[in-house]
Every structure is written in C-alpha cells, then in structure tokens.
Amino acid sequence: xxxxxxxxxxxxxxxxxxxxxxxxxxxxxxxxxxxxxxxxxxxxxxxxxxxxxxxxxxxxxxxxxxxxxxxxxxxxxxxxxxxxxxxxxxxxxxxxxxxxxxxxxxxxxxxxxx
Length: 114
Hints:
Blueprint: E1 2-7, H1 23-46, E2 51-56, H2 68-75, E3 82-85, E4 88-92, H3 98-112
Parallel strand pairs: 1-2
Antiparallel strand pairs: 1-3, 3-4
C-alpha cells in the first residue's frame, strides 16, 4: 500500500510572503505543520509496511510533471492537501486526523486480506 500526500506551500495564500506575516499567522501555520508531522510520525510508526510519500502542488509547476491521478484531480478542481491511497483519492482540501487515516487504512487492509 502506498499513501501519497500532496500539499501546498502554507504561505502561498499570503499576499505579503512569510516575512511580512503576523506572529499569530506564523504560529497558526507552524501549529498546522506540527500537527501534520505528528500524525505522519504516528502512522509511520504503526504502519511500517506502508510507503508514505509527500510532495507539493504549485501553480508554478507544469501540470505534465504530476502523476496522472494527481493531475486529473487538479484539473477537476481539487485543492491541496490531497491524500491518495494506491492512487485513489481519499481526502481533498483537508488533512485527515490520525483516527481518520487509521480507519481508512484498516478498512483497505481488511478488503485486501483473503
């Protein structure tokens, strides 16, 4: 099983760039990044046989540089973060909680087991 996480630059929506952001905005971004990292660490520790890949989407990146399943979702209006398991989208526009990830992975494991 392979889990792909396609996220965007958390400062890309800022008109002034990260150097001009308020301390509160910076803290909110850092909290979000730390939460995602904590979730990923727990998942990697628990599901050692699953490959986790993380990449970025960017408006500056050519659409042809994405794998077909990612570019298809982007062309259909999907927004980051996008989460795929074995090239099938499971979440879009939000990052699942640890519990949501675990539930989805466990359900897919049960489907694949004889």
